[in-house]
Amino acid sequence: SEEPLLAGRRVLITAGGTIERLDPVRYITNDSSGKMGFAIAAAARRMGAEVVLVAGNTSAGSFPEGVQHVQALSAQEMYDAVLRRLADTDIVIMAAAVSDYRPKSVAPQKMKKTGENLILELERTPDILQTVGQRKGKTFVVGFAAETEHLEEYAMDKLQRKNCDLLVANDVSQEGAGFGTDTNIAQIYNKDGLLENLPMMTKPEMACRLLRIIASTLEAAGDR
Ligand code: C5P
C-alpha cells in the first residue's frame, strides 16, 4: 500500500485526446489513449488525494475507483471544466493531448459530398495549460510535452512560456514512450533545468514516481 504523501491535496488531472467536431457525425482527434492520465489519477487517489479526472476521448478502460470523473470532449469543454475548478485545486496535472486546432465552423447537419475538393478551415483552440499558468495563484501546475527532437530546449521553453512548476517531457520517437503504449520514458524539468530522468517503466510506475516528485517539491517549498 501507498504512503499518503498527498493526503488532503485536491488534484485535478486531464487525460486523453480531445474531439473537435466537423458535423454531427465527423470529428478530428488524435492517438492519445488517456493511459498516463488515468494512471496518475489512480496513484494520486492511493496517495490520499481528492482527485478530479477531466477526461476527453480515451481508450484506457474503466475509470479509476474513488476518483471524480468529469467528461470534457472538446478543447473548449476541457478549458471550461478545468478553469471552473482551478481556484479549488492544489495541483493541476495536464496529461491530455489537446487539439491545437478545430474546424472554424461546425456544420449543423451532415455535410454532403460534392465533385470538388473540400478545404477545411481550422482555427486555434484555447491553450488550457497556458491560461492555467497565468491564473494559477498558489496552485502547483504540471504540464506535459510530447516531442520528437530537441527535448530539453522545447521542454524548458514550454515550462517558461506556460508558467509551469514542473514539465514532463516525453520523447515520443523512442520505442516504449508516448501515445497508446503501456510504458513511458520521461524527463522531468523544473525552472532550474533537468530534475529527474525516468527510464522506461510502466505508466502506473511512472505515475507514482511523478507524484512523489510533486509531493517532495511541495514539501521542500514548505507548503504542507
Ligand atoms: O504546446 P503543447 O501542446 O506541446 O503543450 C503540451 C501541454 O499543454 C500539455 O500539458 C497539454 O495538456 C497542454 N495543452 C493545453 N491546451 C492546449 C494545448 C496543450 O492545455 N490547447
Helix count, DSSP H or I runs of 4 or more residues: 5
Rg, nearest Å = 18 Å
By CATH, the architecture is named: 3-Layer(aba) Sandwich
Q: Can you list the ligands bound to this structure?
A: cytidine-5'-monophosphate
Tally of distinct domains: 1
Instruction: Kindly report how far apart the N and C termini lie.
Output: 22 Å
Average pLDDT, to the nearest integer?
A: 96
Report the portion of residues in β strands. Answer: 25-35%
Oligomer: single chain
Low-pLDDT parts are: none
How would a textbook summarize the main sheet?
8 strands, mixed
Fraction of helical residues:
25-40%
Order of helices and strands: EEEHEEHEEEHEHEEEH
Pathway: Cofactor biosynthesis; coenzyme A biosynthesis; CoA from (R)-pantothenate: step 2/5; Cofactor biosynthesis; coenzyme A biosynthesis; CoA from (R)-pantothenate: step 3/5
Domain DNA/pantothenate metabolism flavoprotein C-terminal: 6-216
Binding site for CTP: 100, 110, 126-129, 144, 158, 162
GO molecular function, one term: metal ion binding
